[in-house]
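Think of the structure tokens as a kind of shorthand, similar to the way a musician reads notation: each symbol stands for something richer, in this case the local conformation of the backbone. In the example below we present two proteins back to back. Begin with the first one, reading the sequence and then the tokens, and try to describe in your own words what changes along the chain.
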Amino acid sequence: MKHFSRKSALILFLLMTFSAAKAQTIEQEIAKKSCECIQTKLSSDGQITKAEVQNCISKSGDEVLKSKDPQEAKRITRNMQAFVERLKTVYKLVEKCLPQTGYK
């Protein structure tokens, strides 16, 4: 019996580790979609405006939240201070996919 519980605990641990490694945070999901949007909006000379970047982030945030369970989306947006912190994280992640030059 003792051997079975250790084996079960190991399997549970491995499953949890696998799912945690595969899962993305909501911030990462929004940033990924935002970067995809930004790539489509770059001008022929590789420039993009701040307004276009903000639009991509806003649109991506809406899409990600709509894809979530309504209860989860409500939980995410309920606390304004936490939501603002999430947005700051998204903007930091999105900065990595912006062109080094050509961001106006």
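Once you have a description of the first chain, move to the second and do the same.
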Amino acid sequence: MKIDGVPYRTIWPAADGAVEILDQTLFPHRFEILRLTGLDEAAHAIRAMQVRGAPLIGATAAYGLALALRKDASDAGLASAAATLLATRPTAVNLHWALERMKAALAPLAPAERADAAWAEAAALCDEDVAINAAIGDHGLKIVEELAAKKAPGEPVRILTHCNAGWLATVDWGTATAPIYKAHDKGVPVEVWVDETRPRNQGAFLTAWELGRHGVPHKVIVDNAGGHLMQRGLVDMVIVGTDRTTARGDVCNKIGTYLKALAAHDNGVPFYVALPSPTIDFTVDDGFEIPIEERSGDEVSWLPGLTDAGDYTRVRLTPETSPAANPAFDVTPARLVTALVTERGVCPATREGIAGLFPERAAA
């Protein structure tokens, strides 16, 4: 996607052997490129959410492993680096998937061959992510076009999304935003309701920023406004991403997604989940088996932002004596999901629907 007319990915190899990322902890107020030169920096970038979003976490882990193998490409070095990266965040299955893919490609090689092979495999993984998300966009575009056909000429399809499943959460295009970008670029009128997505405000900080840079009409809303808008017929569809989807179609996504699904179900608003196939975890059946990351309560108690003078700071929101709980994700049962939008097409959120699109993985 483009920033002020310049095309960017969220992660790319630098000419001098480092890896560069966009530091997402500074958006929307600052745009800075961060260099990763080794394993510890890559692991920190994932843990501190300088990169975030399931696909981008996986891509960063792949490059982190490649950086680590330049220093120690032994069997022990490979295993240790993978373990370090795997421990950074527990919920997004793409992290595990990317590391397993990298280890499968690298373990059979002689140690002297691993570093270059790891770099090439990480680059291939990133290219595949871009292609997957573009295909998700093509399939989701058809849904948006069908809704647009039912509207008055020029009336926008109003889409509500939660958190950031945009191109900042992937290598490019995004998952939930890919159909939106495809529709906008094709001239289909769309307007996006952007949930702020407390406590880290990925909607207000990230989704709003990238939609604005691309010229997509949107409005930021507080998290609790979605149900109100649905009741009044101001939402035509909801589309979100996912950090892990089970074999039967339960969806684990940013905290608050479940409440949006309940409101959509109550108001007859279709609720779609856009996901790349690496996000499907065929080893888990029940969504409540997915480990839910519990993040620091400081994310709830403090809010970063700009002062009137333009200084970047943070302010406390809660009483000093009040502790905060911060579960980062929740589970939306498959029964509340209208359909899953994948790179191979749209399917029901059922075991049969998923297996029909990905028979080779379902049977494994």
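Compare your description with these statements about the second chain. Residues 137-362 form a domain with the Rossmann fold fold (CATH 3.40.50.10470).
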